[in-house]
Every structure is written in C-alpha cells, then in structure tokens.
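In response to the reviewer comment on reproducibility (Comment 2.3), we provide here a single inverse folding case reported in full, input and output, so that an independent group could reproduce the run without further information from us. The structure tokens appear first.
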C-alpha cells in the first residue's frame, strides 16, 4: 500500500482514470497514446486494475 502515513484509510480507494504513455525509439520523451484500446486488451487491463485496487485496499477495514 502506498498511502501517506499521516492519513487513515476510511473508504476503499478506486482507480478513476489512467493514461497510457509511450516513448518512441526516435525520441525518448513520453507521449500520451490516444488510440482506441481493443476490447480483448481492455478486458485484461481492467482486470489488472481491479487487482491493483484490491491490493491497495487490503488494509482498509471491511466494515466501511
């Protein structure tokens, strides 16, 4: 869990957005991709994000 040690988790955290950036071989500066993600990639990617949320919320009390 990567939270500020001075905050107490009171509600589960959820990922509300993301940005995919790449570095092209001719210029190492990161640029945002705006291409549409294929459905089969989107499904796996969203599952991965859900797993990250679950890990992040492991220490949040379940009665919240």
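Designed residues, in position order:
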């Amino acid at each position: 869990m990567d939270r500020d040690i001075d905050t107490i988790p009171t509600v589960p955290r959820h990922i509300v957005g993301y940005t995919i950036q790449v570095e092209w071989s001719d210029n190492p500066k990161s640029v945002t991709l705006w291409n549409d993600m294929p459905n089969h990639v989107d499904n796996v990617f969203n599952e991965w994000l859900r797993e990250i949320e679950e890990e992040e919320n492991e220490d949040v009390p379940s009665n919240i």
